Amino acid sequence: MKTIEVGGQAITTPIFVQRIDFDDLAPEVTDGLTTVKFAVTVSEEMEDLTGETHEDGSPMTEIKEIQVPKWLEVDLGPESLKRYEEVMTPFLAAARETEAPTVPAPRKRRKK
Q1: H or E element in which residue 79 lies
Q2: CB neighbours of 26 closer than 8 A, spacing ≥ 6?
Q3: Is-contact 42 66, C-beta < 8 A?
Q4: What is the mean pLDDT of residues 53-65?
């Protein structure tokens, strides 16, 4: 229900919403969808303490590039899913099974 004001009167009316899922590569496909989740490795910058200090005694930092996983998902119809599986076949054949990671947020580290 949604209440709106019209001409000084409050009118409450039902709101109907229709969710339409579609293939993210072929938006005209709305049936038989599969959500595929995957991770890719991306570069991120992280501020790191160098262990040195400035003349005023404040810690020196440097920016480092680190590799972190980025989790993605895409909805695919039957044809797009088939194309995805064909492209991924050599990578899946070479992959090792692993546990789902718990990824902590990058944080400052001190050099020893």
Answers
A1: helix 78-94
A2: 77, 79, 80
A3: no
A4: 89
Residue 77, number of CB atoms within 10 A of its CB: 21
CA–CA distances in Å: residue 43 to residues 23, 61, 83, 102, 106: 28, 19, 27, 18, 12
pTM of the prediction? 0.57
Residue 14, Cα to own-chain centre: how many angstroms? 34
For the chain, first and last CA: distance in Å? 60
Residues 6 or more apart whose CB falls under 8 angstroms from that of 29 comprise 22, 23, 77, 78, 79, 80
- Owner of token pair 């064909």: 86
